[in-house]
Design a protein that fits this description.
This protein has one domain: NAD(P)-binding Rossmann-like Domain (Rossmann fold). It has a seven-stranded parallel beta sheet, sandwiched between helices. The chain has helices at 12-21, 51-65, 88-114, 138-158, 183-191, 201-212, and strands at residues 2-7, 26-32, 42-45, 70-73, 120-125, 163-170, 223-226. The chain is globular. The protein is an alpha/beta fold.
Length: 252
């Protein structure tokens, strides 16, 4: 049985991914900043800003199962501010989770994946904001762009051990991160995608499942957009001003 860790599984894309993987022949570990009572099975409480917490989590997996075949990193936070009104502390908090947390996860996971043999995979959840940054999203877009760069470098460095590393760039997915949008804003966003609607967490989760499987054996170093055609459609959707969006921390 394959063993996979899904980080950021308390809600949204991470939760959907964990549920879908558990329907297959996969032993799923879930990790987030808090324990989700809606999820049964093996759970970890991780602080992505604390490297020691991350290392301890992987030690638990090693002690329990002795192997890891896949890592899915869906955790992320957003705090929107205009650059001229922003604070370095805001940028650092976003980077600490979205980039440095991912960096520590990949370092620790890599050591276990090396020993798992073939058909191992890492999937990072980035954002279309990394490909087309928008006003007010400086910290978030920069952190996700850095994650895409890290994904590409890791794909090259981990290839010698047959570890595939890919990223997904979701568009507007109906998760807690969009909870602050009004119905009118949701309508505008939906109309400016080719799909004509917001995405569901499952739309991304099924792509994650594919990238973890042997069916994607020839895909590595790639970024796959799951955005309903948002980047292709014109005009490009405009992000609501920062004061109209929540600055709360959410997982994708």
């Amino acid at each position: 049985m394959r063993v996979v860790l899904v980080v950021g599984a308390s809600s949204g894309i991470g939760l959907a991914t964990a549920k879908i993987l558990r329907k297959s022949d996969t032993c799923v570990w879930t990790a987030s900043s808090r324990i989700n009572e809606d999820l049964n099975g093996r759970q970890l409480r991780l602080d992505l800003t604390d490297p020691a917490s991350i290392r301890h989590g992987f030690t638990c997996i090693l002690q329990k199962d002795g192997v890891l075949h896949g890592l899915v990193n869906t955790a992320g936070i957003v705090q929107d501010e205009l650059i001229m009104q922003s604070h370095r502390q805001t940028w650092e908090s976003v980077m600490n989770v979205n980039f440095w947390g991912a960096y520590e996860l990949m370092r620790s996971a890599g050591r276990l994946l090396i020993n798992a043999g073939e058909d191992t995979s890492i999937v990072n959840i980035a954002s279309v904001s990394a490909l087309h940054p928008r006003c007010g999203q400086g910290a978030y877009a920069a952190s996700k762009a850095a994650l895409l760069a890290l994904t590409g470098v890791a794909a090259q460095e981990f290839a010698r051990w047959n570890i595939r590393v890919n990223a997904i760039a979701p568009g507007y997915i109906n998760t807690p991160m969009l909870a602050s949008l009004s119905d009118a804003q949701r309508t505008v966003i939906s109309q400016q995608t080719l799909a004509g609607c917001l995405g569901r967490p499952e739309d991304v989760a099924y792509v994650v499942e594919f990238l973890l499987s042997s069916q994607s054996r020839y895909i590595t170093g790639a970024t796959i957009s799951v955005d309903g055609g948002l980047l292709t459609a014109t005009p490009v959707v405009t992000t609501p001003p920062p004061h109209e969006r929540s600055s709360d921390h959410h997982e994708h």
